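queue> pop job 88
queue> type: inverse folding (structure -> sequence)
queue> payload:
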C-alpha cells in the first residue's frame, strides 16, 4: 500500500501537482477518511482569517462579496475562515441552499470557504470556534497550505486591532490573539509555507507598530498595516484580486502597495461623502520586515540614551514635553489614555529638536533613518500629516504596560535591549519631575457680556511650563464644574494669557439645527495654518434603540480669519479593544457630552443630562461645527492649562451672557 501511495505522489509531483492526504478524525481520534487533493501549485494562496463574530460582521461580509467579484483562479487561490455570531438570526436550510449570485449564504459559527467567482465553496463547517485561540489560526493555516499549495502565501488577519496587545478579539469567547501567540503559530507552521510568508496583513486598527513587526521577523517578508484607527469598511479586496489575477508574478512589495493604495482610494473616491471624510484620518503602510532589526537596535540605543537623559534634572520634563508633542494614534487626540501609539519618525524628530543631549539627538537621528528605510510605502489622510508608516507604544503611566492577561514585557521588542527599561524609568520619573503650571485668578473687564460689548479676560501662569492653554467656558452643576469645551489660546513670552469673549461658543449641528457642544483635544495639522483635528464627546442612540452609547465625533476645524468652521471627519465609539471607527446612519440621534476634571487633574466626561437637546442625523456629511451666542444665563469663563502629563487646571470668573436684543 505504501508503494502505491508513493507512486501516486511521485507522479503527481512530476505533473506539477501536490498530493494532500487529509485524514478526518472521529471522536476516538482515529482517521475516518482520506482524500487526495491534486491541486496545481498556485502563484499565490491568500489565507484570510475573518473574525466576524463581532460588530464588524456586516462590513466583513461586504469584504467577502468584494472577493466574490473576482474569485479564485489557478494562479491565485483565495481561502477564508469566516466566523459569524450565532443566535436567533440563523438561517434555515432552505435559505442556506439558495443564495443568489454574489450573495453570502447565512450561517452561524465558522466556515472554511474557498472564494469563487460569484460563489462560495464551503469546504468545512467548523461550528462555534474561538478565533482568539492560536490553535484555531494554526489549524486554518495548515488546512489552507495543505489544500491550496502556492509559491507565495499571504495571511490576512481581519478584525479589531489593539496594537501590542494583539488582534482578532472574539466577543463570543472574550479572547484575542496576543502577539506572542501569533509568533508561536507562525513558528509551528513555517514548514507549511516554505519558511516565510510573503505578506502578513492586518485589516485592523493600530497594528502598524514596531512591536507587531518585531514578532513577525523571520516569519514573513512584508507587513501591511495601519498606524491609526481604520474605517470599518476594511481593505478593498476586489482591487487587490483584480490586479493580482492579471499579474500574479508581480513582486511582493508591489502587492503590498496595491493593498495600501486601494485602501486609501476606497475612502477618497467613492461617491459617499462620509467615506471621503473618513479619508482625512486613514493610514496604511507597507513594511520590510528584513529591515525591522535595524529599528529595534536603534530603539535600544535610544532607550539607553533616554535613561541617561532621565538622570538629568531637566530630563524627565523635556521627555514628557516631547512625548506630548508627538503624533499619537488610537486615543482621543492628546489625552493620555495609555492606549495610544506614537509615530516613530515624528517621535525621533521631536526628540532631536526638543532635547539638548547630543547622545539622545544622535540616537534619535539613527532611529529616524532606520524607521524611514523600513517603510517601503505609506499612504495617509490629510488629517494625519505626521503618519510616516510605523509607530511605537510609549505608555505614560503604569497601567499602560498591561491589558488584562497580556503584558507589554511579553513582546519580542520588550525582551531585547533597553527600550522597556527606559519606558519603566520614564513612568516613574515623570510624575515627580514635572511641575504643574499654576494659574492666577482671572480678571474680567466686566461681569456681563454680549457680542457688541465683549469681556476682556486676563491671567498669568506660574510654576511649571504648560503644554497647552485654552479659553474655556463652564457652568456649575451642584458642586461640580462642568466645562463646555475649550478653544486654543497662546501664552505670551511673559507667561500672561489674554482673550476676548463675546458670548459666542461652539455648536454642533446641520442645516436644520444645532446645539452647544464641547470641543476637546485640539491636534494641530502641521501642513495647514490654524487647522486642527478636534474631538467632540457625545452620545449616540441608533434608530429604533433606546440605548445611549459614548462616542467621539472628529472634525477638521479651521480657526482662520473667517471664524471657526468644522467639517465632519469620522466617528468612533469606545470598546473593550479601544476606540473603533463607526458609521453614522440616517435616523441616528446624537446628544452632547460635556467635561469635568477629576481629582488627579485629568479630563473626564461629565454624566450626560437627560434634558440636553438632541440632533437626529439625516446625512453625516452635513454635520459641522460653527459658533453662535450662548443661551442667556450665568457662566464661568477663563483659562485652562495642561501640563506634559495631560493634567489640567483652570481659573474662572463669573460672567453673565445677556439675552440677544432684536
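queue> result:
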Amino acid at each position: 500500500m505504501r508503494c502505491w501511495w508513493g507512486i501516486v505522489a511521485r507522479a503527481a509531483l512530476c505533473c506539477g501537482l501536490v498530493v494532500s492526504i487529509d485524514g478526518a478524525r472521529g471522536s476516538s481520534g482515529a482517521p475516518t477518511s482520506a482524500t487526495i487533493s491534486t491541486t496545481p501549485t498556485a502563484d499565490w494562496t491568500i489565507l484570510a482569517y475573518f473574525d466576524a463574530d463581532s460588530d464588524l460582521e456586516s462590513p466583513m461580509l461586504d469584504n467577502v462579496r468584494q472577493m466574490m467579484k473576482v474569485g479564485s483562479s489557478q494562479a491565485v487561490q483565495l481561502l477564508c475562515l469566516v466566523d459569524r455570531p450565532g443566535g436567533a438570526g440563523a438561517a434555515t436550510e432552505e435559505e442556506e441552499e439558495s443564495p443568489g449570485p454574489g450573495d453570502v449564504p447565512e450561517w452561524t459559527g465558522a466556515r472554511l470557504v474557498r472564494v469563487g467567482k460569484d460563489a462560495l465553496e464551503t469546504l468545512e463547517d467548523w461550528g462555534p470556534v474561538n478565533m482568539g485561540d492560536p490553535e484555531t489560526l494554526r489549524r486554518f493555516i495548515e488546512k489552507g497550505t495543505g489544500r491550496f499549495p502556492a509559491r507565495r502565501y499571504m495571511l490576512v488577519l481581519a478584525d479589531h486591532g489593539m496594537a501590542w496587545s494583539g488582534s482578532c478579539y472574539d466577543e463570543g469567547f472574550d479572547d484575542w490573539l496576543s502577539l506572542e501567540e501569533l509568533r508561536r503559530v507562525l513558528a509551528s507552521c513555517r514548514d507549511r509555507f516554505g519558511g516565510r510568508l510573503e505578506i502578513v496583513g492586518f485589516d485592523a486598527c493600530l497594528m502598524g507598530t514596531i512591536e507587531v513587526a518585531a514578532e513577525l521577523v523571520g516569519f514573513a517578508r512584508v507587513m501591511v498595516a495601519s498606524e491609526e484607527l481604520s474605517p470599518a469598511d476594511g481593505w478593498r479586496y476586489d482591487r487587490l484580486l483584480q490586479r493580482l489575477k492579471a499579474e500574479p508574478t508581480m513582486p511582493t512589495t508591489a502587492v503590498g502597495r496595491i493593498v495600501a493604495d486601494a485602501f486609501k482610494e476606497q475612502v477618497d473616491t467613492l461617491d459617499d461623502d462620509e467615506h471621503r471624510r473618513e479619508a482625512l484620518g486613514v493610514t496604511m503602510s507597507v513594511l520590510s520586515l528584513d529591515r525591522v532589526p535595524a529599528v529595534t537596535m536603534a530603539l535600544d540605543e535610544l532607550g539607553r540614551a533616554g535613561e541617561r537623559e532621565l538622570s538629568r534634572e531637566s530630563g524627565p520634563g523635556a521627555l514628557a514635553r516631547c512625548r506630548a508633542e508627538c503624533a499619537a494614534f488610537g486615543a482621543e487626540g492628546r489625552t493620555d489614555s495609555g492606549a495610544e501609539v506614537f509615530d516613530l519618525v515624528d517621535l525621533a524628530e521631536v526628540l532631536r529638536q526638543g532635547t539638548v543631549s547630543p547622545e539622545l539627538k544622535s540616537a534619535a537621528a539613527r532611529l529616524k533613518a532606520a524607521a524611514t528605510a523600513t517603510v517601503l510605502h505609506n499612504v495617509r489622510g490629510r488629517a494625519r500629516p505626521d503618519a510616516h508608516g510605523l509607530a511605537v507604544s510609549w505608555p505614560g503611566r503604569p497601567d499602560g504596560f498591561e491589558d488584562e492577561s497580556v503584558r507589554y514585557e511579553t513582546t519580542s521588542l520588550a525582551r531585547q535591549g533597553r527600550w522597556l527599561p527606559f519606558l519603566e524609568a520614564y513612568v516613574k520619573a515623570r510624575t515627580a519631575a514635572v511641575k504643574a503650571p499654576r494659574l492666577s485668578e482671572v480678571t474680567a473687564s466686566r461681569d456681563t457680556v454680549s457680542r457688541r460689548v465683549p469681556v476682556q479676560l486676563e491671567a498669568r501662569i506660574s510654576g511649571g511650563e504648560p503644554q497647552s492653554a485654552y479659553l474655556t467656558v463652564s457652568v456649575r452643576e451642584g458642586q461640580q464644574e462642568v466645562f463646555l469645551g475649550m478653544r486654543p489660546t497662546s501664552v505670551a513670552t511673559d507667561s500672561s494669557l489674554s482673550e476676548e469673549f463675546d458670548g459666542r461658543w461652539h455648536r454642533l449641528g446641520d442645516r436644520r439645527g444645532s446645539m452647544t457642544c464641547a470641543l476637546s483635544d485640539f491636534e494641530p495639522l502641521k501642513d495647514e495654518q490654524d487647522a486642527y483635528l478636534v474631538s467632540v464627546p457625545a452620545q449616540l442612540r441608533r434608530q429604533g434603540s433606546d440605548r445611549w452609547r459614548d462616542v467621539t465625533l472628529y472634525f477638521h476645524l479651521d480657526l482662520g480669519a473667517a471664524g471657526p468652521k468644522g467639517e465632519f471627519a469620522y466617528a468612533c465609539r469606545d470598546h473593550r479593544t479601544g476606540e473603533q471607527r463607526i458609521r453614522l446612519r440616517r435616523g441616528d440621534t446624537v446628544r452632547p457630552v460635556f467635561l469635568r476634571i477629576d481629582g488627579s487633574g485629568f479630563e473626564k466626561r461629565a454624566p450626560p443630562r437627560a434634558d440636553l437637546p438632541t440632533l437626529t442625523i439625516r446625512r453625516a456629511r452635513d454635520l459641522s461645527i460653527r459658533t453662535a451666542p450662548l443661551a442667556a444665563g450665568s457662566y464661568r469663563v477663563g483659562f485652562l492649562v495642561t501640563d506634559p502629563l495631560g493634567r489640567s487646571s483652570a481659573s474662572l470668573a463669573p460672567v453673565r451672557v445677556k439675552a440677544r436684543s432684536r
